[in-house]
Every structure is written in structure tokens, then in C-alpha cells.
Design goal:
The complex is a heterotetramer. Chain A is mainly α. Chain A contains three helices and no strands. Chain A is elongated, with a radius of gyration of 17 Å. In chain A, 59% of the residues are buried. Chain B is globular and about 120 Å long. Classes of the chains: A mainly alpha, B mainly alpha, C mainly alpha, D mainly alpha.
């Protein structure tokens, strides 16, 4: 039987990998992908706890997370397309027009 | 309402009508003010006659200020002192009103001028009729304002408004002391009403005040002395005593009628009136009395020495006014209040006469004021010459003219007032000689001798003919005033004006006078006056080089006198320039530099620090996220390791 | 008491604001300027007439708040909509409503861009100012206090002179910084004073000395900026110089009074011990302010700056009078507030008259205008004389009473304050000499005498200047009871023995 | 067996996640992500969440990722210059610290042992999908509706933005 802490460890590692990706990549598309990794890390955690604690609600939350992720991707990609039209680039450091 | 109200009210109505509707009068301002003034004069004569027989009148008009325990009402009080002053003031004022009709003819500010002299007369009458210190102060300042606005009548000339400012500010400095005196009176006595003050005076006579308590001082002064001296500061300003006198000669920049009315006969005597009115307070303080006496004596002699060398006809008369005011103040200082007021009255008549005469001369010379550019005017201006002669004789104290009686009374009282009295007497006699000299210097230079002006030279834009006698509206007041200058002294002496006045003083005047020295004293002062006149005759009646040579001989003294003892220069150097310099310095350096600098500095600090902090805001989303992550893990570390 | 069946104070506050809102549609209309001006005049005149009903309905014999209204406003913090006035606020409200029509008349020529917006700002400002004087709930007071800043900020910032942005931001930030301390004090009072913002019930509490001191200092900072007292005054000249005439008038006549009103309404009755404790400090600042303002005025070349600095000097008398804690001082201070409002307001109107013709405020550009503008010159002379405290005109009575009160409290203070009166003569006569007297030299501009709008703005003030000089009792009688009550509140908390210096 | 499959799936997940971050070409990253999604789905199966595993594959792999790849190919951006941000070294340093922290945290934490399944008398045990259905449409009905609303809004938003008629300043 796999201990729960392994799952937690896995999900933490996955989360960190996603976080590092979000923080280091210049390509906005990849940043968005890394966000998906982070969401998945959370989902793994949820599901593991759901099994080990016999709580079905956690899986419902995962369901919602997936829903929100879908919405987020739709909007996020829309924004990226708009930004690309505007700037001709998907590099995140080109998008600093909010700065004075 | 009794007719007393009308005495001040009529000039006030005159002022309001002419003042508000002046654009519509178009040179007819006198048709309202002059009749009203004459009516006021008649009423004040009636007031005088009623007071002669009856008790003093007291009318409360309305409550003015009520605040806590502080109550002041505007009231009218007519006692002997007020009544007799009223007669003098309204007489001179009426005559000046009439004189103005001729003198100010063709002046663009004719109607305005009438409005203001009516306002002045109203204020002066109220000043005389006031029954408490604050009311006195109000009209004290009001007459000062009228003086200001009348000096500045010809506002386009720079000397006018400079002189007006000087007059107002010097009076303000005096009033500063006067106001502090009033405040102290209220704090000590709890009232500002004359009769109540005098009632409570004995209880406070030994009170003392620690003036420097705010600075932990311990010296105590007599309250009464402090009050008397503070109030006297006001009188020094208003009556042009040393050291607040320089405004009076400069005030001659105003039209001559107001010089006669305000700066000779009435307003400047307000200081003396105030001292006499408050005589119980002054009597209670020997220190204050001697200060008053010395101030007066010094003013008398200093002004007389200045008058010796002046060339401007009005300035000579102005310095003589100042000198005579010194006489009156000195009289008050030695306790001879009655004599002081007597001299005030006679002086009011003959000095107004001299000024109006001088005005008549100036009028005929089309504005020329330098006596050495006149000469020989007696042929063309017989009435003016005669009346000026009478005025000068009265001023010089030659019997039987008015000045003789009043001046002589002061001198004899001074002589009898103890050891220092002799010094005052000597100063008085010296001043009398100087007075006679410079007065007749003026008369001889202007009216005798050869004509020092060329025909038509001073007549640009005017008729362009030789000096002429003034019209009747101007000569009539001269004649009337000469009559007064002739008779007022004799009448005052004959009807014992001093005794009459003593009824309105709480401290009765000592009536017992040693007869011993009277006649010799009189003789001395008359002789001294004649000497002065003769001296003036020899030096100035005929063309002579002696004055020039003397001026050369005593260069320093001459320059001291000519430059008015350098008072103006001294004030300029010590007060005016430093104040202005300091103001600019403080404004530029401290107000703008330090105070505003701190304010702007705070703003600038915020701006610069924000500008440098702004760089943290890179606009890079990932930077923010990194900082968030670091913060998160930092918090976890804190949670883990520093529990 | 109601007006048009609305409680009178509510009516006074909201009538101009609602009027301003009704003016909004005019913003887009062409050629509506004259209409808007007349509508604004109508609103302010109705407002003035309505405020006079306070005089009729008010009872001068009680210190209780009159025309009181009380509604729960924000329940969770016990914040009420409470209004009420006593004699002190009454005279200030009437002065405010009186001055507003004049501000509009004086803008007739001077304001010619965005007229509708200007009038709206003025009207909203009027409502807020009356709200400040009428509010009896601390939060409500604070709301009006801050609301007042916004229209003023716009008036200076939009219709001001060349350096208007600097001036208006300085004014706004300075006042706001002070106000934050006021908010601090209000909140701490809420917790110390039994969870209420009601001003009257906050007055009835006893606070610990330490709290009194801190709260007093907080309130002092807020009010001292507004008055302005000596080291906090530098925003005033800048704001005045840049503000349009109406702005200067409101600023000088009404807004400066808010600070002094704050001292009277809050500092004294709520923190009597602290007030007594800080008396020496306030005296010192007031005296420095009196002398300093006067000396600064002497050094000015700009007419508006000169008058602005003279305000510093005059307001020094007000703060001095408030803290001498006797009837003469406090009544004199309130009278001085009104007098300063009328006189300085009038002086700013006069400068506005000149400025509209020449677009210059420099003394050196004038001289001898008595020749071409005799009527106006007469007015200017009278108002200047009133400002320098000539007896018979209004300012004298206030200054005299303050001096009397100060002299009773401490002779040295009275003496130093009296020097300010000499200096007042110096700078006002300097102004007159430079502007009115002298030789008139024609310049590129024409100087016609006053037009009818200028008459309408100056004549009522002239009448008041003379009337208050001759009959100050008309005003003083409204104050007696309130002032006595106020002094009772102070002296009941602290014996004044330490103050009677001098003897 | 279970441990083995955990090690396989976990390792594959981590590896493909790392590839996502490492690949320079976004298309490759997307493909690695596909692999990660698939393996996560496998992990769900081990954890007896078959329904979620299905959803994971259908929604993530089938819908979201396809969308990604569409966009990546639509934009067809050539990656120029740096792949990583300038702050990358800091990030890596912080990540190491964070990893240590997390490891420490996990090692220090005490996890409850697996609870025994609660026997439910009289009720036949339900499958995973049925249970989710039961809870989702009863207890979480309202959030479910909200989720649908979120999706709707996302739909509308995506259309609006992608249309590109809006003018950005």
C-alpha cells in the first residue's frame, strides 16, 4: 500500500515544477501550460486524500477545478491571441504596458 | 431727545448727504454742509450758555458693546470743559467751512472735501462729548482718519500721501499706547466710564503692577503711573509731542483749511483735552506729571528752534503749533489744567487765523509756499496783512492780544509750581522769545520788503495778474478770527475761565496765587516777546545779509534746525528701513525658504522616494509572481523554523 | 422649524446641492452662461433668505442646539444624521449664505469658461460649508469637512491662475493631512466617549488627561492648518494668489473660519484640561502669527498675497481670543471671525474688480486709480480701513475685545498682540498708497468704474462693515448664552488660576 | 504492484512535467503535457477515481490541449532569444529551498493511516461514477450551476476577445 505522504510528495514536486515553469519561461503559452501542471498537482492531492479519507467531495472539487481550468484556458488563450495581435509577440516581458 | 444730540448730528447729516451723493453736487457741496455747520455752531453756543448756569448734561444714546462684564455705551456728556471746547471747535469749523468755499473753489475734490470736514467736525464733537475712554478712543481714531483722508486730498502728489501715511502711522503708534492704557484701565477699574474711574481711583492709588511677569520679572510699578503714561503716549502721538511729532509739519501737504482746522485748532489739541479730562489720574501720579511736563517743555523749545530756519510758510506755522502744543502739555504737566485749556482755546483762534491768513497768501500767490519768494504783499493784501499781524502779535504774547493772557498764565503757574517750575518757566520764556522772532520773521519777509517774485511767474494757468486780496468768503473768517484773537484772552481772563473750568475737574484748582511776582513775570515775558520782534525786524524787514552770515557762522546749529533735528532721518534709519529690510528678509529666507521649504521638502521627499520605489514595479508579471512565491515560502520557513 | 416643509437645516444644506445638480444639464447647452448665472444667484439668494429664518425662529436665550434633527444613518457604528445650531454656528451660517451671492456676482465677468461647472462647484461648496457648521454628529461633520475640499480643489485647479495646479494640490494635501488627524481623534473619541459620535454627548464626558492631550494635539493639527496658524500657513498665500476671486473670497471668509470654529466647538468643550494645558503654546503661535503675518504682508508686491498674509495676522487674533477663556476674548474672537470674513472677503472682491480689468495683481502696475475709479477707490479705502481696525468700522470691535480678553488673561500677550494693530496700519496704508493714491498713468487697459454686478457684490458688505462697527451688539447678543455655556464647560473642568498673569 | 504502478505513473508525471518546462518549442511542451495528463489519469485509476480519470482524458487531453495546439499552430511563433527569464537563477535557487522545505514539512508531518471503509448497512456500495453523480447533483448542485455559468462566461469571453474587433489603446 502506497503511503499518503508519497502522493503528497508527488503532488508537491509537481507543483514546484509547475511553479518554476511559470516563473522562468518567457513564452506565455508555456506559462499557461505550466499553470495546468500546477492545477494537476492540486488535483492529484485531492484525489489521494479522497481515497485515503473516504471523502467523495474531494473528487467533486477536482471536477470543478477541471471546469475552471477549461474556462481559464479558453479565456487565457483568447487573451494571448489579442496580445499577439497587439504586440506581435507572445513573450511575457513584452507585456508591461501597465507600467508607467 | 434734547438738542445736544443735534450738535454732532448735524455735521454727520452733512457728511452723509454730501458724502453719498457727491457726484451730483458738482461744486455745490457747501449748500448742505455750511448751513448745517452754522446751526451746529448756534446750538453749541446754546449748550455753552446752558452749562454756564445749569449742571452738566449726560445722555446715553445706545449700548455699543456688551460682552461678559464689559459694557460700553455711546453717550453724550456736556460739562464745562466740553462746552467751552465745543464753542471753540464749532466756531473754527464753521469759519473754515466758509473759508473753504473760496479757497477750494475750482478744486476737483470740492464736494468730497466738504464731506470730510463735516465728518471731521462730527468726530471732534463726539470726541469732546464722550463720557468714557473707549468712546473717546473711537473718535480719537476717527479724527485721525479724517486727518489722513484730508491730508491725502491732493492724492496725485506723492508728498501728500507720504505725509498722510506718516500721520496715520505715527498716530497709530501713539494709539497703541493709548489702547493699552485703556485696557489697563479696564483691568484695574473694571469700567471705562470717566466718573466711575474717578470714583474708584482712591481705592487703587497704591496698586502696583508687575509689567514683566510674563518674563519672570519682579519689579513692580504703580498702576496709576503706568496707566497715565500709556494714555499719555496717545496724547504724544495726537498732539505731536516729541518724539512722535514729525507727522505734523508734513501734514501741511494737505489743503490749508484743514491745516487750520485739524492741525492747528482742534484735532491736535485732543491730547491736551484728554489729559485734562483725566486729570484725577494724572494728579495721582507725580512721575507721570513730570514726564508730561518735560515732554511738553522739550517739545516747545525744540519746535521753536526748528521754526527759526524753515522757509515754507505753512511749516513755520506748523512748528509754531507744535511749540504751542508743547506749552499746553507742559501746563498740564505742572497741574495748570485750566491754564492749559485757556491757552488751547486762544491758540485755537489765533492759530487758525494764522493758517487761514497763510492760506490766503498762498491762494493769492497761486500755490507758492516759500516765504523768500514772496515779499511786499502788504500793499496788495491789506486785510490779510492786518489780520496776520493780529494773529502774530497774539502768538507772540503781546498784550492785549489773546496769547498774552493765556501764555502768561501758564508761565506764572510754572514759576510757582516748585523748584523745577523755574526751569519750566525759563524754557517757556526762551520759547516765547523764539516764537516772537520766527513769527515776525514770517510776517516781515512775506509782507514787507521787496517783491521776490516776478510778475506772472507763478500764475501759469491762473488769472495771471499780480497778488490780489482774497474774496470775502475768505477774508470774513479772517476778520472774525482776528476779533476773537483780540478779545478771547481778555474775556477769558475777565470772566475767570480757569475757575469756570475747574468745576469740571474733580481736583479743585488752587485759587490762591501769590501776587508778588505776577507783574514782574508779565513784564519779563512781554519784554522778551518784544525783543524777539525787534530782532526779527532788524534782520528781516529790510534786505540784509546778516541772516546768511549767521547761518554760515553757526553752520552746525543752522543745519540742525534746518533739518528738523534729523528726526526723520533717524526714524528712517532706525525703524523704517530695518522693518522693511527685516520683512523682506524674513519673507524670502524664512517664510519662503524655511517654512515653505519644509512643506515642499516633505512633498519632494515623498515624490523622490516614490520615484525610486516605483522601479520595483517592473511591469513583469513573473517578477511579481516570484516575489509572491518567495513570500509564501518565506512565511512557511518562518512557520517552520522560528516557531 | 421648516422651510417649504423641509426641516430648515436640511433644507439649507441640500438646497444648493440639489440646485447644483439641476444645473447639470446646462453643461452641454450653448449660450446658457447668463441663464446659469442668474439661476445660481437665485438659488443663493433664496438660500440667504431661508437662512434668515434661523434668526426669526432661533431662541438666543438658550445654549441648547436648536432646529435639531436626528436620524439614524449608519446603524452598525451608531452614526447619526444629526443637525443643530447654537448662536455661534448661527452667525457663521448667515455669514456664509450672505457671501455666496456676492461670490457669484464677482464671477460675472471673471469666469467665462465652464461657467456651469463653476456655479455647480460653488453651490455644492455652499451646501458642504453649511453642513460643517450645522453638523452635530462627528462623522457627519467630517464628511462635510472633507466634502468641502473637493469643490474648492476644483475651483482653484480649474479656474485658477497660471500656477494653479501647484497651489491647489498644496492646498488639498495640506488640509487633508491635517484632517486625517481629525479622523484619528474622532475615532478614538468614539471609543473613549461611549461609542457615540454625537457631539453634544461627547462634550459631556470626562476624558483622562493623557487622552485629552493626545486628542487635543490631533484636533489642533487639523484646525491649525485650516485657520491657518503660524507654521502651517504657507498654503494660504499660494492658494489665494491662484484662486479665482470667488474662490479667494470663500477661502478667506468661510473656510478659514472652519478651523477656529473647530477649536470653539470641539477642542475647548471636549478637552478643557488639555486646552488649558496648551494655552501658552497657542498664545505663542497666535502672537507669532499676528506679527509674522503682518510683516510678511509688508514685503508683498502682489495684492492678493498681501491680503492673504494679513489674514494670517487677523486669524492670529481669533485663535488668541478663543484661548484666553473669558467672555470678551471668545466673543471678540467670534466677532473677529465674522469681521474678517466680511472685510477680507470684500478686499478680495476689490482685488477681483481690478484684476478683471487689468489681469494684474502687482502693486507696481497700479497707482492713482482714485482719479479714474473714484467710487471703487472709496470702497477700497473703507474696506482697508476696516481691515486695519479703524473704530466705527467692524473689525475694531472684534480686535478690541480680543485684546481686552488677552490683556485680562496675560498683560504681556495683550501688549504683543496690540503691536499687530500698528503693523496692520503699515501694510494696509502701503496697499492704499500704491493702488489708490499717486499719479494715474494710463496703461494699455481701461479702468472704468464699477459695474452693477460689482456694486451688487460690494455694497451689501459695505453696509455690513459700517453696521457691525456701529452696532456690534446685534451680533454679540446672539453669542452671549452660547459663549457663557462654553466657558462654563471649560472652567468647570479646570480652574483658571494659572492664567491670570500680570498682577 | 500498487507501489510499482505509483512509481511508474509518478515518475512519468514528473518527467513529462519537467519536459514541459524544458522544451524550447511550445508544441513539444504541449505534447509533453499530453503525456502528463495521460499519466495523471492513470494515477486516478489507481486511486479508484475512474470517473475523474475519464474526465481527465476527455476534457484535458481531448479538449484543452487540442485547443492549445490549435493556438500554438495558429500563432506559429518562432522562439527567438532567451527561453528563460532573467530571473531564472533566482527562481531555481528559490525552488531548491522550497523543495527542501516541502520535503522537511512532509517528513515532519504526521499523516493519518488509511481509514477502513465505512460499511453502509442495507445499501449496496455504489461505483465511483454513481457516487459522484449522487453528490454532485444533490449537495453540490448550486456550485455545479455556477460552474456552468463560469463556462458560459468563458465561452462568451473567449469569443469576444478572439474576434479582435475591440480596440486596445
Amino acid at each position: 500500500m502506497v503511503p499518503l505522504s508519497w502522493y503528497v510528495g508527488l503532488s508537491s514536486a509537481l507543483f514546484l515544477v509547475g511553479l518554476v515553469g511559470v516563473l522562468v519561461r518567457r513564452n506565455t503559452l508555456v506559462v499557461l501550460l505550466c499553470i495546468e501542471i500546477m492545477l494537476n498537482a492540486v488535483n492529484v492531492n485531492f484525489v489521494a486524500f479522497s481515497k485515503y479519507q473516504h471523502v467523495i467531495d474531494a473528487q467533486i472539487l477536482v471536477f470543478f477545478v477541471i471546469t475552471v481550468a477549461a474556462a481559464e484556458v479558453a479565456i487565457g488563450l483568447g487573451i494571448i491571441i489579442s496580445l499577439f495581435r497587439l504586440k506581435g509577440s507572445v513573450n511575457i516581458d513584452d507585456f508591461n504596458i501597465l507600467k508607467l | 431727545m434734547s438738542f445736544y444730540v443735534l450738535i454732532p448730528l448735524l455735521p454727520l447729516i452733512g457728511f452723509l448727504i454730501t458724502g453719498i451723493f457727491w457726484p451730483y453736487f458738482k461744486g455745490k457741496g457747501h449748500i448742505v454742509t455750511v448751513p448745517l455747520m452754522i446751526a451746529s455752531w448756534v446750538l453749541s453756543l446754546r449748550a455753552f450758555s446752558e452749562t454756564m448756569s445749569g449742571p452738566s448734561v449726560h445722555l446715553k444714546l445706545f449700548d455699543w458693546i456688551d460682552s461678559g462684564s464689559f459694557h460700553v455705551a455711546i453717550s453724550l456728556m456736556v460739562d464745562h470743559l466740553t462746552a467751552i471746547m465745543l464753542v471753540m471747535v464749532t466756531t473754527v469749523s464753521t469759519l473754515v467751512h466758509i473759508y473753504t468755499v473760496g479757497y477750494m473753489k475750482d478744486d476737483s475734490g470740492y464736494d468730497r472735501f466738504f464731506a470730510y470736514i463735516s465728518l471731521f467736525t462730527f468726530s471732534m464733537i463726539m470726541l469732546l462729548m464722550s463720557d468714557n475712554l473707549l468712546e473717546l478712543f473711537v473718535f480719537w481714531e476717527a479724527v485721525g482718519f479724517c486727518s489722513y483722508i484730508l491730508i491725502v486730498h491732493w492724492y496725485e502728489r506723492k508728498p501728500s500721501w507720504v505725509a498722510a501715511n506718516k500721520a496715520f502711522i505715527m498716530n497709530r503708534i501713539g494709539d497703541f499706547g493709548f489702547m493699552l492704557g485703556i485696557l489697563l484701565v479696564y483691568v484695574v477699574f473694571g469700567t471705562l466710564n470717566y466718573s466711575e474711574i474717578f470714583q474708584k481711583l482712591p481705592a487703587h492709588i497704591h496698586d502696583s503692577i508687575n509689567l514683566w511677569s510674563a518674563f519672570n520679572g519682579t519689579t513692580h510699578y504703580s498702576v496709576i503711573t503706568v496707566i497715565a503714561l500709556l494714555l499719555f503716549v496717545g496724547a504724544v502721538g495726537k498732539s505731536a509731542q516729541l518724539p512722535l511729532h514729525p507727522w505734523l509739519p508734513d501734514a501741511m501737504e494737505g489743503p490749508t483749511p484743514i491745516s487750520a482746522l485739524i492741525h492747528a485748532a482742534t484735532m491736535v489739541t485732543a491730547g491736551i483735552f484728554m489729559i485734562v479730562r483725566l486729570n484725577p489720574i494724572y494728579n495721582a501720579s507725580a512721575v507721570a506729571m513730570s514726564v508730561v511736563a518735560w515732554t511738553g517743555a522739550l517739545t516747545a523749545v525744540v519746535a521753536a528752534t526748528i521754526a527759526l530756519t524753515q522757509r515754507d510758510i505753512k511749516k513755520i506755522v506748523a512748528y509754531s503749533t507744535m511749540s504751542q502744543l508743547g506749552y499746553m502739555v507742559m501746563a498740564c504737566g505742572i497741574g495748570a489744567y485750566g491754564a492749559g485749556i485757556f491757552h488751547l482755546l486762544t491758540h485755537g483762534f489765533f492759530k487758525a487765523l494764522l493758517f487761514l491768513g497763510a492760506g490766503s497768501v498762498i491762494h493769492s500767490m497761486s500755490g507758492e509756499q516759500d516765504i523768500f519768494r514772496m515779499g511786499g504783499l502788504s500793499r496788495a493784501m491789506k486785510i490779510t496783512f492786518a489780520t496776520m499781524m493780529i494773529g502774530s502779535l497774539a502768538l507772540s504774547g503781546i498784550p492785549p492780544f489773546a496769547g498774552f493772557y493765556s501764555k502768561d498764565l501758564i508761565l506764572s503757574e510754572a514759576f510757582q509750581s516748585g523748584p523745577t517750575g523755574h526751569i519750566f518757566w525759563m524754557i517757556g520764556v526762551l520759547t516765547a522769545m523764539l516764537t516772537a522772532f520766527y513769527t515776525f520773521r514770517l510776517v516781515f519777509v512775506v509782507f514787507l520788503g521787496k517783491e521776490n517774485f516776478s510778475e506772472g511767474e507763478h500764475h501759469h494757468g491762473h488769472e495771471g495778474h499780480a497778488p490780489h486780496e482774497s474774496p470775502l468768503v475768505m477774508t470774513f473768517p479772517l476778520i472774525f478770527l482776528s476779533f476773537m484773537a483780540l478779545t478771547a484772552g481778555w474775556a477769558g481772563n475777565h470772566y475767570d475761565i480757569v475757575g469756570f473750568l475747574s468745576q469740571s475737574m474733580t481736583v479743585p484748582h488752587p485759587t490762591a496765587r501769590p501776587e508778588l511776582s505776577e507783574d514782574s513775570l508779565k513784564a519779563i515775558s512781554v519784554i522778551v516777546g518784544l525783543v524777539g520782534i525787534l530782532l526779527a525786524y532788524f534782520l528781516y524787514a529790510k534786505p540784509s545779509t546778516v541772516p546768511q552770515r549767521m547761518a554760515h557762522q553757526f553752520k552746525r546749529l543752522y543745519s540742525l534746525s534746518l533739518n528738523k533735528w534729523f528726526f526723520d532721518e533717524f526714524y528712517d534709519l532706525v525703524f523704517v528701513k530695518p522693518t522693511i529690510f527685516l520683512s523682506f528678509l524674513l519673507w524670502k529666507e524664512v517664510d519662503k525658504g524655511v517654512i515653505d521649504g519644509i512643506v515642499n521638502g516633505v512633498a519632494e521627499f515623498c515624490q523622490t522616494s516614490a520615484a525610486s520605489l516605483r522601479r520595483l514595479q517592473t511591469g513583469q508579471l513573473q517578477n511579481y509572481a516570484l516575489v509572491m512565491a518567495i513570500g509564501l515560502f518565506g512565511m512557511v520557513s518562518v512557520f517552520l523554523f522560528i516557531r | 422649524m421648516t422651510f417649504l416643509s423641509i426641516p430648515i437645516l436640511t433644507f439649507l444644506i441640500f438646497f444648493p446641492i440639489v440646485g447644483g445638480i439641476f444645473l447639470l444639464p446646462f453643461m452641454k447647452m450653448k449660450n446658457s452662461d447668463t441663464t446659469v448665472k442668474w439661476v445660481a444667484v437665485g438659488i443663493t439668494v433664496i438660500e440667504f433668505i431661508a437662512s434668515l429664518t434661523l434668526l426669526i425662529g432661533g431662541n438666543p436665550g438658550t445654549f441648547q442646539m436648536q432646529f435639531a434633527e436626528d436620524h439614524l444613518w449608519i446603524p452598525f457604528a451608531n452614526i447619526h444624521y444629526t443637525l443643530g445650531i447654537d448662536g455661534i454656528s448661527l452667525v457663521l451660517i448667515i455669514m456664509t449664505t450672505l457671501l455666496m451671492p456676492m461670490c457669484i456676482f464677482t464671477s460675472w465677468v471673471g469666469i467665462n469658461k465652464r461657467v456651469t461647472e463653476f456655479m455647480i462647484a460653488i453651490l455644492v461648496l455652499e451646501g458642504a460649508m453649511i453642513g460643517v457648521f450645522a453638523a452635530m454628529d462627528f462623522i457627519l461633520f467630517y464628511v462635510f469637512w472633507e466634502a468641502m475640499l473637493i469643490p474648492m480643489f476644483l475651483i482653484i485647479g480649474v479656474w485658477g491662475g497660471p500656477n494653479r495646479i501647484y497651489a491647489t494640490i498644496k492646498f488639498f494635501l495640506y488640509t487633508l493631512a491635517g484632517s486625517l488627524f481629525l479622523l484619528l481623534a474622532i475615532i478614538s473619541l468614539y471609543f473613549e466617549g461611549g461609542h457615540t459620535f454625537n457631539i453634544v454627548s461627547l462634550m459631556g464626558q470626562h476624558y483622562s488627561p493623557i487622552f485629552q492631550d493626545f486628542a487635543f494635539v490631533a484636533l489642533f493639527l487639523a484646525f491649525a492648518v485650516k485657520v491657518p496658524m503660524f507654521p502651517f500657513h504657507t498654503w494660504l498665500p499660494d492658494a489665494h494668489v491662484e484662486a479665482p476671486t470667488a474662490g479667494s473670497v470663500i477661502l478667506a471668509s468661510v473656510m478659514l473660519k472652519m478651523g477656529a470654529y473647530g477649536f470653539i466647538r470641539f477642542s475647548l468643550p471636549m478637552f478643557p484640561k488639555a486646552s488649558v494645558f496648551f494655552t501658552g503654546f497657542i498664545f505663542a503661535l497666535s502672537l507669532i502669527g499676528i506679527i509674522w503675518g503682518a510683516m510678511m504682508a509688508l514685503a508683498q508686491e502682489d495684492m492678493k498675497k498681501l491680503i492673504a498674509y494679513s489674514s494670517v495676522s487677523h486669524m492670529g487674533f481669533v485663535t488668541l481670543g478663543i484661548f484666553v477663556f473669558n467672555a470678551q476674548g471668545v466673543e471678540g474672537a467670534i466677532l473677529q471671525m465674522i469681521n474678517h470674513g466680511v472685510t477680507t472677503g470684500a478686499l478680495f472682491l476689490c482685488v477681483g474688480v481690478l484684476y478683471d480689468r487689468t489681469h494684474s495683481r502687482l502693486l507696481s502696475d497700479y497707482g492713482g486709480i482714485a482719479k479714474v475709479m473714484p467710487v471703487f477707490s472709496t470702497m477700497l479705502v473703507i474696506f482697508s480701513l476696516s481691515s486695519l481696525g479703524l473704530p466705527g468700522l467692524n473689525s475694531f470691535v472684534g480686535e478690541f475685545l480680543v485684546l481686552l480678553g488677552a490683556f485680562r488673561a496675560n498683560a504681556a500677550v495683550g501688549v504683543i498682540a496690540a503691536i499687530g494693530i500698528i503693523l496692520a496700519a503699515l501694510y494696509m496704508l502701503y496697499l492704499l498708497s500704491k493702488v489708490v493714491w499717486g499719479k494715474y498713468e494710463p496703461r494699455s487697459w481701461a479702468l472704468p468704474d464699477m459695474n452693477r454686478y460689482e456694486w451688487a457684490s460690494l455694497l451689501p458688505l459695505l453696509v455690513i462693515v459700517v453696521w457691525l462697527g456701529v452696532q456690534p451688539n446685534a451680533l454679540l447678543s446672539m453669542l452671549h448664552v452660547s459663549v457663557t455655556h462654553l466657558l462654563g464647560q471649560v472652567s468647570s473642568a479646570s480652574p483658571l488660576a494659572s492664567l491670570s498673569g500680570g498682577f | 504492484m500498487e507501489i510499482l504502478s505509483f512509481v511508474y505513473f509518478g515518475g512519468a508525471i514528473l518527467l513529462s512535467a519537467l519536459m514541459v518546462v524544458i522544451f524550447k518549442n511550445p508544441l513539444y511542451s504541449a505534447m509533453s503535457l499530453l503525456s502528463m495528463f495521460a499519466h495523471v489519469a492513470g494515477l486516478y485509476v489507481i486511486l479508484e477515481a475512474e470517473f475523474l480519470a475519464g474526465v481527465q482524458l476527455l476534457v484535458y487531453a481531448g479538449a484543452i490541449l487540442v485547443l492549445y495546439i490549435f493556438v500554438v499552430m495558429l500563432l506559429n511563433v518562432q522562439t527567438q532569444g532567451r527561453v528563460l527569464q532573467k530571473q531564472a537563477p533566482v527562481v531555481f535557487g528559490a525552488a531548491v529551498v522550497a523543495a527542501v522545505e516541502v520535503a522537511f514539512l512532509i517528513s515532519r508531518s504526521h499523516f493519518y493511516p488509511e481509514l477502513p471503509p465505512v460499511p453502509q448497512p442495507g445499501v449496496p456500495p455504489l461505483g465511483n461514477t454513481e457516487m459522484i453523480g449522487m453528490v454532485l447533483y444533490t449537495k453540490y448542485l448550486f456550485p455545479f450551476e455556477i460552474a456552468s455559468l463560469v463556462l458560459l462566461i468563458a465561452l462568451v469571453g473567449a469569443i469576444v476577445m478572439a474576434k479582435g474587433k475591440l480596440k486596445f489603446r
